């Protein structure tokens, strides 16, 4: 067992506050009716079961670091540079990044077309 790094703690806090369905800002963990266990965590040991099964898979890099499992094949997003686990030939981490890339391609195409005329 080892202690969590500062980046891992920040990633856990971000995942819990944004995606955990059991977390409430006022009350903490709703099923346990106490402060959220994952927010005060400082070592890699037992995890909240809901967090491990439903929330942690949203961050594949953190999941691999915490579970000592095989590191997923992570690829940087072509637009924002954030690492993500690609499915097939995906080049973007989200639909928003894909839309931004499409707009940039369209802008470049139209700019080139105007210059050719």
Question: What this model shows, in words?
Answer:
The protein is elongated and about 70 Å long. The chain contains four helices and four strands, in the order αββααββα. Helices cover 44% and strands 7% of the residues. The model has no long low-confidence stretch (mean pLDDT 83). It has helices at 6-19, 49-55, 60-67, 95-116, and strands at residues 23-24, 28-29, 75-76, 83-84. The chain folds into two domains: 6-68, no CATH class; 75-116, no CATH class. The longest helix is centred in the last third of the chain and has 22 residues, at 95-116. The chain has 117 residues and is mainly alpha-helical. It comes from Anaerotignum lactatifermentans DSM 14214. This is Cysteine-rich VLP. Pfam families: Cys_rich_VLP (PF14194).
- Give the overall average pLDDT: 83
Q: How far apart, in Å, are the first and last alpha carbons?
A: 66 Å
Write out the strand line-up for the largest beta sheet, numbering strands in chain order.
Answer: 1-2
- Rg of Cα set: 20 Å
Structural class: mainly alpha
